[in-house]
Amino acid sequence: MLETSLEGPATPSAALELLLEGNKRFISGNRLHPHQDADRRTALAPAQRPFAVLFGCSDSRLAAEIIFDRGLGDLFVVRTAGHVVGPEVLGSIEYGIAVLDTPLIAVLGHDSCGAIAATLAAIEQGITPAGFMRDVVERVMLSVLPVRDQAAEDPDVAVEEHVRYTVDMLAHRSSVIAERLADGRCGVVGLSYRLAEGSVRRVGGFGV
């Protein structure tokens, strides 16, 4: 059932269910385009209460509100190339959890990821990209190195390992997130998106 309340779901499991239901509609082509009208816009003007923090890759094919069939005020979206984590990113996610009281963090990776491909190439060739792109590759490399042999045959192994690595980092390195995980107020889940199919599948998680 489509959630219409401004408050949204109260539990991590209910929030994840909303995400997955929306993705199913996107895959089938039966999208509802919820919360995209003038009434919703007006209702949200005083305050927001998103039901999920969506931390995903910046890839242009990964527009969160579209692939999960959601609208205004539903998702607190944070995106970086390769969903790499830095202080500003972690602060943004913690804001969504601590200030907006969002019950779910979803980490969204995908196949054919440029950041993953660049990292695998750097491992194989021993050459990192120029400029600040090097920082992205170096952060992704921490998760990819342990599976580099398998990833050489199947890059999706690296994609999913990097999602799991990011989920684990958020759950254990942020005291704000860890505290809410411990008392059941928040969950962290990893999702892997297939570009051609439009589908997501779960890749690890905590509290959901």
UniProtKB/TrEMBL annotation:
Domain of life: Bacteria
MF term (GO), any: carbonate dehydratase activity
Keywords: Lyase, Metal-binding, Zinc
Any single biological process term in GO: carbon utilization
Keyword Transmembrane helix: no
Cofactor note: Binds 1 zinc ion per subunit.
Enzyme Commission number, as recorded: 4.2.1.1
Catalytic activity of the protein: hydrogencarbonate + H(+) = CO2 + H2O
Essential cofactor(s): Zn(2+)
Uppermost EC category: lyase
Binding site for Zn(2+): C57, D59, H110, C113
InterPro entries: Carbonic_anhydrase (IPR001765), Carbonic_anhydrase_CS (IPR015892), Carbonic_anhydrase_sf (IPR036874)
Family label: Belongs to the beta-class carbonic anhydrase family.
Role description: Catalyzes the reversible hydration of carbon dioxide to form bicarbonate.
UniProt name for this protein: carbonic anhydrase
